[in-house]
Amino acid sequence: MAQQEIVFVTGNANKLKEIQKILAPVTNYKLINSALDLEEIQESSLEQIATKKVKEAVSLLPSGTPVFVEDTALGFDALNGLPGAYIKWFLKKMSLDELIKILDGFESKTGKATTTIAYSDANGKIHIFQGITHGNIVSKRGSEEFGWDAIFEPLVSEGNLGIETYSEMSKDLKNEISHRGKAFRAFKDFLLSN
Questions:
Q1: Domain 4-193: which CATH number of 3.10.20.30, 3.90.950.10, 3.40.50.720, 3.40.50.1220
Q2: C-alpha–C-alpha distance, residues 1 and 26, integer Å
Q3: Within 13 Å and on the Cβ side, how many CA atoms surround 10?
Q4: Which residue in 18, 40, 46, 183 sits closest to 191, CA to CA?
Q5: Do 43 and 51 touch, CB atoms closer than 8 A?
Q6: Cα torsion angle, 97, 107, 132, 130, sign
Q7: 38 CB contacts (<8 Å, ≥6 apart)?
Q8: Cβ pair 57, 7 in contact under 8 A
Q9: How far apart are CA 66 and CA 59, in angstroms?
Q10: Which element (helix H / strand E) includes 47?
């Protein structure tokens, strides 16, 4: 049986490589990429943002094309989850050093990383998958090439503080414990069972 193509809408080459590694091998699907320019609504709900984007992608692709989008947030506990879904826009206007300075007046330096995937199957039914990782917001350590990875030190297990930021750890370890890894493993399990 031929592999069915599934479209991942992203213009981020680093994200594409990471997802290809996490999803491999999903034997009945061939992951292809499309850098469609989708409208990103300003909304605090990742589910609403991702659903809107996948619906727009469906309208731009040939009928019946399975397609998925992914949105990621970084929320600070001291700020009741902000910047959250707005993290991308914060990073366009400020450096990582400036971003963590926001927490200077707060005792809590913890946060939550969340990835939400919206997948529209060949019949147009939308499925949502989400992964969450809790961690500490720290002074930047490691490479700054992948968003805010250099300031997020994940909790490796409940009650056990991590000692590395996402940027400092191996790609395999990051994919194993990260919010994105958790969301995409749930998505992968869904694809393998359908």
A1: 3.90.950.10
A2: 13
A3: 21
A4: 183
A5: no
A6: negative
A7: 9, 53, 56, 57, 69
A8: yes
A9: 12
A10: helix 46-60
Distances (CA, A) of 119 to 17, 51, 74, 124: 19, 8, 21, 9
Sign of CA dihedral 66, 133, 47, 53: negative
Digit-coded pLDDT (tens) for 123-182: 999 999 999 999 999 999 999 888 899 999 998 654 455 689 999 998 888 888 899 989
Structure tokens at 58: 């469906």
Tell me the per-residue pLDDT of 72-99, one tens digit each, with 9 for 90 and over.
999 999 999 999 999 989 999 999 999 9
